[in-house]
Amino acid sequence: MTKADIVNEISKNTGIEKVTVQKTIEAFMDTIKGSLVKGKNVYLRGFGSFIVKERAEKTARNISKNTTIIIPKHFIPAFKPSKSFVTKVKNNVK
């Protein structure tokens, strides 16, 4: 499902214009991105959490040059679904 599909589905179910729904979804995503960039997690009860995970420093190999490189500690965005969400998917997806 794409963003356009989501906009169409919400518009159909609520009767709100597609343009308004699209602006709302864009604002929602921008708010979440902005919060994660600031290092703040976003919790949506019954859906899940958008969190910032810390990746530790590690040693890796560049196979083509046969050298060792150090990848520094860094942070990545992640999504952790709620237990009820996970249960619903487990029980309904075949």
From TrEMBL:
Alphabetical list of SMART domains matching this protein: BHL
CC annotations in GO: cytosol
UniProt GO MF annotations: DNA binding; structural constituent of chromatin
This protein's UniProt keywords: DNA condensation, DNA-binding
Entry annotated with the keyword DNA-binding: yes
Example of a GO biological process term: chromosome condensation
Family matches, as Pfam families: Bac_DNA_binding
PANTHER family: DNA-BINDING PROTEIN HU, DNA-BINDING PROTEIN HU-BETA
Protein name (record): Integration host factor subunit beta
Species assigned in the record: Plebeiibacterium marinum
Top-level taxonomy: Bacteria, Pseudomonadati, Bacteroidota, Bacteroidia, Marinilabiliales
